[in-house]
Every structure is written in structure tokens, then in C-alpha cells.
Design goal:
The complex is a heterodimer of chains A (354) and B (360). Chain A is an all-alpha fold and 354 residues long. Chain A has 15 helices and no strands. In chain A, 49% of the residues are buried. Chain B contains 13 helices and 12 strands. In chain B, the strands form 3 sheets. A 5-stranded parallel β-sheet of chain B has the order 5-4-3-6-7, sandwiched between helices. Chain B has a 5-stranded mixed β-sheet with strand order 9-8-10-11-12, sandwiched between helices. Chain B has a two-stranded antiparallel sheet with strand order 1-2. In chain B, a hairpin with a 5-residue loop joins β1 (47-51) and β2 (57-61). Chain B starts with a helix and ends with a strand. The chains are: A mainly alpha (354), B alpha/beta (360). At the A-B interface, α3, α5, α7, α8 and α9 of A face α1, α4 and α5 of B.
Chain lengths: 354, 360
């Protein structure tokens, strides 16, 4: 009886600590959002920013039209887009790592980045699109979206043929990556210099395309996808113990795996087609979250999402302020920040996480 | 457990939806990207409508007093029109090039990724950029500030005249534009006149290489190829499907060109190059390639390096004279292209003529 009480208490403690950490992360995120809106290359004082933000609700001060527009039309959508994209990438990465049972997996493991790059290059160099559209910008977005899903589609089809083991998925993913990278290189070979430069720039990823309209589209399509991911938390937990164990617990392993790939693909494709291929968030955020909250996906998903949002937000804020007025591409900064972190995690890696 | 997490998700979603709807309620109607007349007296504002290089019809309110320029070709065009003072912001490339004389202007980032906050702060009326780059994010990000994006290329020889005229209409400098266009036309007329009666047997066969990219050449669809054709020569790489094909050394040797032209993209030639040591070394290295040693071009010393701006770039009309003079020296004995280049810099851009542009 006593032992039972002891165990229950310990369990409640652990859960309590994890919830506390999630709360702490949320608070940090809110603070980061505020801080990011306060800084920028335009010389606007913090007071003016706060004034611009809240004077619509309570007109306690007046700020110039330019300040209001800069804060509401340039900074706010960009900051919120970083948060949403960060959550999407991180959760996609967590799903990938759970489904493939591999700590080195990321949303791009199945070749999505190469597919998206190929689609964008097709639009930029040849002007060919799946949905032929008058607007050049839309051509790139729709192409990138559809072509980023093609590798996943092929991988999933192969998995249905040969069985959905992690090895099959990863190998097919690598094959897809090489195929589409070669396609992109070929397009760069035939393209004009300025088009090639544009493709390269697109590959870096940038949050400059964050407008309210794009933000609405990205958040309304990707955030609802978080709900099925959360619902599958226990299934993912079972999956970490191995396919046989999971099956014996009543988990439909193949469905969960393929469903996970499907969810992760969408969660990645949506921000990527608007923003370009921003890397490393999907790889590093789940790892950091796992080190703190453990492998229970009920907490891993939220923690990873919040961490991803924090990382991307900080990286983008740094990207647009460090060398102001030069705006660095955020994909470059996430890689620079991510690689040392990643190497550190690799060296420190202990079996018990898996 | 599962329920709790679903709850978390739903809460997140709800928060976001509320935030966005709240924003829309507070913001009011979205800003329309047209120009709005400033508070004025009785006279209505003068508007001018042009079709820019991206094929869009743009209406701009005159007079335009504040301009942001994103690339050097547009900056040169503004210098030609004599409206340098109206520029309030430039990209880092424009700022960097000393000959443009824009070191005192505010830098607003790179031409591919401008900093929109900095641009907005400067309150320009128009921003001039290339037709394709940066993409539509430029209009989307600047629309709330009522800044019009004018897309003009200036680097394409076939549209330069019309681009210049459109810009002149916006800046009220039509006369200057017409003067420059006639000056340019006189140069092209001279070239065409001297090459009029060229017979097919007389035509020189040329191999053009992309500087520092061995065996990369130019074919149909590239402005460099057009420049070669305009100078009366035959490009041995004509008729390929790709604009910038990479060929093999043996093929060039087999074709045995009479003259070789190397387009240098600002590495060993340009305004800031002080002497010809670098370009001489570059040319010597090039001629030492085993495949080329036996070609007529190398044997007769007819290998020339020319800056890319003069070959298919914004100053290609002067470059074509250089080329024609190298191809048919007898026909152009009395013509000195360098005088014209000097005139371009001194008279039209208003700067001193400097740098190494061709070799030899």
C-alpha cells in the first residue's frame, strides 16, 4: 500500500515538473515574441512600439503612421510566422524521429527539401508550374508544395509494397533526395545566372515573405494538423518500444507509421513552400526537448513545438538585426546555430534516450 | 491524457484564431496599394501611368522626389538622367561601387533581400528593382506604406531605350533621355553602317568563354551571343538548345575559331582595376591551355578579354564596337571605342573615366 502511494507520488512529481517546464517554455515564448517585436532595423524606441501595439485598443498615446505600419505589417506577421513555422517544423521532426526510430531523422529525411527545391527551381528557371498561374510568386509556392509531397508519396507507396519498416523508409527517402537534387542541379545548369542566384536564395529560406495573408494560410492549415499528432501520442510512445511490442499492445503499427509520415510531410510542406527550406529546427528541437522532458510524446510534442518556435524566432530576430540593414537568410543562421548543438548532442548521446 | 493534450491543441488553435480575428477587427479595412494624394490646395495631383518591365500598369503621382534604388543598372540610368539627388536609399552593391558616387546615401540591405523597415523609414515614393528579383514579397511588404515598386531592367539591351524613357517620364527628364538614346543610336548606326556589306566568307568565327568558368560558352538566348552576332561574327556555339552550354576543349580545337573573346565578370577588369597585370596573367594562362594552343586564334594572338558589361550588358553598344574593331580592323581603323567609353563615364555619368575594360 505504502509502495503504491510512493510510486503514485513520484509519478505525480514527474508529471508536475514536466508541466512546469511546458509552462516555463510558454512564458519564454511570449517574452521572446514581445522582445522580437521591439527590435528591428528601423529606429523606433521601445515605448513607440508598445504604443503602436496597444493604442488601437486603448488610445493612450499616439504613434506615427509609419511606426504603426512597420510594427503591424512588417514585424508582427514575421514574428508570428516564425512561431508557427517553428512549431510546425519541430513537431514534424518529432514525428519523423518517432516513426523512423532514428535520432538523426528530420522532416527532410524523406527527400522533401529536395522535392520542394526542385519544384521552386522548375518555376523559377523554366516558368513551368503544376497550376499555371499568372502570378509568378504563386507559381513558386504551389510548385514547391506539390513537389515537396511527391517524394513522400513515392516513399509511402514503396512502403506499402515492401513493408513499412524504418529502413525501407529511410532508404527510399535517400533515393528521392538524390533524384530531386539531381533534377535541381540540371535546372541550374540550363538556367540563366540571375535565375540560378534566385534558386540558391530560395533554398536558404527566408521569413521576409511573411505577410498576414501568408500567415493566415500557413497557420490555418498547419496548426489543426497538430491535433491528430497529439492524439497519437500514446501510439508513438508504444512505437518507441519496438514494432513487436507495439503490435502486442494493440497499435496498428503500419497505419501509425504511414499516418505519421503523412502528417509530418504536410506540416513541413506548408511552411516550406512559402518560406523556402529552413533546416535544422526539425532535427534539433525534438532532441533538446527529449533531453528535458523525456520520451513521453504527450509532453514531447508540446515541448518540442515550443522549443522549435523559440529557436526559429530567435534565429530570425538575430538574422534581421545583427548586420542590419543586411538581412541574413534565416536558414543559414539555423544551420550555424544548429550544427554545434547537434554535434554536442551526438557526442553526448546515450542509449537510454532510445 | 490524450484528452488533456487534445485540449492543449485546441486551446492553442483558439488563441491563434482569436488573435487573428481580433487583429482584423482592430486594423479596419486593409490598406490599398494605390497612391493617395497628400493634402493639397486646389490643383489635382499629376499622375503618370507606365507599363513596367513585369508587364504591370503602374500609376505614380508626380512629382517624385524620393527614390530607393536596388541595383547598379538602375542607378546608372538615374545618373544619366541627371536626377541623382532624388535617390534617398540604395542597396549595398550600389553603395559599394565608388564610381556611382552614392556613398552618402543610406544603405537598405541587399538587392535580393532588402530591409523593408529601413526602406519604409526613408519614405520613398518609388522603389526601382529588376523585373523578376526580388519576388512579389517586395510589393506585398511595401504596399502598406503606399510605396510603389517600379520594375525596370536596364540591363537588357533590347528594352533599355523604353525602360529609360519610362523612367524619364516618371522623373520629368524626357529630354535628357532622348539625348542619350540618340547618342546611343548614333553608335549603333555607325556599327551597322560599317558592317553592312560584309559577305559570308569574310565573317570571322568566334569562340566566347565565360570568364573563370572553363569551357562555359554562350549560345542563342543569351545577350552575349546577340552581341557577337551584332558585331558581324559567327559564334561557333550557335544553335545549341541551352543558353549557357559547357563544351569540351576538343570540340573548340576542332572548330578552330579565328578569334577568342573572354567575358570577364568583374574579376580582372572593371572600374576599380588599376593596372593590367591581373588581366594579362589571366589571358596568358588561358592561352596556355593545350587544346587552344593550336587554334588560329591563339597562334595569331587574337585573344581578347572584355568586361561583361560591355558584352551583352548595359554598355554592350560600345562593347560591340570593340569587338567589331578586333574582328575587322580594316573597316574600323578610324574608330576608337575608348573615346566613346570615356564619353559615357565623363559626360553621361559625370564621373572620371578609370579602370581596365578590355585587354589587349
Amino acid at each position: 500500500m505504502q509502495a503504491q502511494e510512493g510510486i503514485k507520488k513520484r509519478y505525480a512529481d514527474i508529471i508536475g515538473r514536466r508541466l512546469l517546464f511546458l509552462f516555463f517554455l510558454s512564458v519564454s515564448l511570449v517574452c521572446s515574441i514581445t522582445a522580437s517585436v521591439l527590435v528591428g532595423s528601423a529606429s523606433i524606441s521601445a515605448k513607440d512600439v508598445i504604443c503602436a501595439l496597444f493604442s488601437k485598443l486603448v488610445p493612450f498615446c499616439s504613434s506615427s503612421g509609419i511606426t504603426q505600419t512597420i510594427v503591424w505589417e512588417l514585424r508582427l506577421p514575421r514574428v508570428l510566422m516564425a512561431v508557427v513555422a517553428g512549431i510546425a517544423f519541430a513537431v514534424a521532426g518529432t514525428i519523423m524521429q518517432g516513426v523512423l526510430r532514428n535520432p538523426l531523422a528530420s522532416p527532410y529525411t524523406l527527400g522533401m527539401a529536395s522535392g520542394a527545391a526542385f519544384g521552386a527551381a522548375l518555376a523559377i528557371v523554366l516558368g513551368i508550374g503544376v497550376l499555371s498561374s499568372k502570378s509568378y510568386g504563386w507559381l513558386i509556392v504551389t510548385n514547391a508544395f506539390i513537389f515537396s509531397l511527391i517524394p513522400s508519396f513515392i516513399v509511402v507507396s514503396l512502403a506499402k509494397l515492401k513493408g513499412a519498416s524504418p529502413e525501407t523508409l529511410i532508404l527510399s527517402g535517400i533515393a528521392m533526395m538524390y533524384l530531386f537534387s539531381a533534377g535541381t542541379s540540371l535546372l541550374q545548369y540550363v538556367g540563366r545566372e540571375e535565375d540560378v542566384a534566385a534558386v540558391v536564395y530560395w533554398l536558404f529560406g527566408s521569413l521576409s515573405k511573411a505577410t498576414w495573408r501568408n500567415l493566415r494560410m500557413v497557420s490555418f492549415t498547419s496548426l489543426p494538423l497538430l491535433i491528430p499528432a497529439l492524439k497519437l501520442s500514446w501510439d508513438f510512445n508504444a512505437l518507441t518500444a519496438g514494432d513487436e511490442v507495439a503490435k502486442s499492445l494493440g497499435v496498428n503499427v503500419e497505419m501509425v507509421r504511414l499516418g505519421g509520415v503523412f502528417l509530418s510531410s504536410l506540416l513541413t510542406a506548408i511552411p516550406v513552400c512559402f518560406l523556402g527550406t529552413i533546416g535544422f529546427i526539425g532535427l534539433v528541437a525534438p532532441h533538446m526537448a527529449r533531453m528535458i522532458v523525456g520520451v513521453d510524446h504527450r509532453f514531447l510534442f508540446p515541448a518540442s513545438g515550443l522549443l522549435g518556435a523559440l529557436i526559429l524566432l530567435i534565429a530570425d530576430t538575430a538574422a534581421r538585426t545583427i548586420l542590419s540593414p543586411i538581412v541574413l537568410p534565416v536558414g543559414v543562421l539555423t544551420s550555424f546555430l544548429g550544427v554545434p548543438l547537434f554535434l554536442y548532442l551526438m557526442i553526448r548521446r546515450r542509449r537510454e534516450y532510445w | 491524457m490524450s484528452l488533456r493534450n487534445v485540449l492543449i491543441g485546441v486551446i492553442l488553435l483558439v488563441v491563434l484564431v482569436t488573435a487573428t480575428t481580433a487583429y482584423y477587427k482592430l486594423r479596419g479595412p486593409s490598406p490599398i496599394p494605390t497612391t493617395s494624394p497628400p493634402p493639397q490646395t486646389e490643383a489635382p495631383p499629376t499622375m503618370v501611368t507606365i507599363e513596367d518591365a513585369a508587364g504591370r500598369n503602374i500609376t505614380i503621382e508626380l512629382p517624385v522626389e524620393r527614390i530607393v534604388v536596388l541595383n547598379t543598372d538602375a542607378a546608372e540610368a538615374i545618373l544619366i538622367l541627371g536626377e541623382k539627388d532624388k535617390i534617398v536609399g540604395v542597396s549595398d552593391t550600389v553603395h559599394k561601387h565608388a564610381y556611382l558616387g552614392m556613398k552618402d546615401k543610406t544603405v537598405i540591405g541587399s538587392w535580393k533581400a532588402p530591409d523593408y523597415e529601413k526602406i519604409a523609414e526613408l519614405r520613398p515614393q518609388i522603389v526601382i528593382s529588376y523585373a523578376k528579383w526580388p519576388g512579389s514579397e517586395l510589393e506585398e511588404n511595401l504596399a502598406p506604406f503606399n510605396i510603389t515598386v517600379v520594375r525596370l531592367n536596364f540591363y537588357k539591351p533590347e528594352t533599355f531605350d523604353s525602360d529609360l524613357q519610362k523612367l524619364a517620364r516618371i522623373l520629368g527628364a524626357e529630354e535628357k533621355a532622348e539625348e542619350f538614346i540618340s547618342w546611343r543610336a548614333s553608335i549603333t548606326d555607325l556599327l551597322e553602317g560599317r558592317l553592312k556589306d560584309l559577305s559570308p566568307e569574310e565573317r570571322v568565327r568566334v569562340y566566347v568563354e565565360f570568364g573563370h568558368k572553363p569551357w562555359k560558352t554562350f549560345s542563342e538566348g543569351s545577350s552575349t551571343h546577340q552581341a557577337i552576332v551584332a558585331s558581324g561574327a559567327i559564334n561557333i556555339a550557335e544553335g545549341f538548345n541551352v543558353s549557357y552550354p559547357v563544351v569540351s576543349g576538343e570540340w573548340v580545337l576542332e572548330q578552330n575559331p579565328d578569334v577568342i573573346i573572354i567575358a570577364d565578370y568583374g574579376r580582372v577588369t572593371g572600374y576599380d582595376v588599376k593596372n593590367d597585370t591581373a588581366v594579362r596573367e589571366f589571358r596568358d594562362e588561358f592561352c596556355a591551355r593545350p587544346e587552344l594552343e593550336e587554334t588560329d586564334a591563339v597562334k595569331n594572338g587574337r585573344v581578347h578579354v572584355i568586361n561583361n558589361k560591355l558584352l551583352g550588358g548595359s554598355r554592350t553598344y560600345i562593347g560591340e564596337l570593340y569587338l567589331a574593331k578586333w574582328f575587322y580592323p580594316e573597316r574600323f581603323e578610324d574608330v576608337d571605342p575608348e573615346t566613346l567609353l570615356r564619353e559615357y563615364f565623363e559626360k553621361w555619368l559625370g564621373v572620371a573615366y578609370e579602370g581596365i575594360w578590355v585587354y589587349p
